Amino acid sequence: MTYQIIDHPADFGLEVTAADLASLFADTVLALFDVVAEIRESGAAKSETLVVQVSGDDWPDLMVNWLREVLYQWTGEDRFVVKVEILSLSAFVLSARLHYETFDPVRHTVLQEIKAVTYHQIRVAPSSGGWTARVVFDI
Length: 139
Hints:
Layout: E1 2-8, E2 11-18, H1 21-36, E3 37-39, E4 48-55, H2 59-75, E5 79-90, E6 93-102, E7 108-110, E8 116-117, E9 123-127, E10 130-138
Antiparallel strand pairs: 1-2, 2-10, 3-7, 4-6, 5-6, 8-10, 9-10
């Protein structure tokens, strides 16, 4: 997974590059959780799974809807995603299995609060290295 944080006034963004489209959608979630919180305590925690499906009007809209769903799992359900399996990805519909740990303040340190995923400067496009996504978040 390759990503970088993008400086943006009052917000922050991520630019993620992956070899293919499915990896891009999975890696963008992992990059988001890498920025949002860290696992402090070593050792394996109990991991659970959840299957989600999202759709969009095009690749950028699908990315925003996907990240909104995953962000809800974090902020609304206290689920810290540790692994993503893309089950299917076709023209603007994604199904995935999220592996997550329930948030535990002893185990997880929150680094960044995120209010929302925005459409500002959203980009999902082929690149020389495969695919690149650029997403800005409201903090």
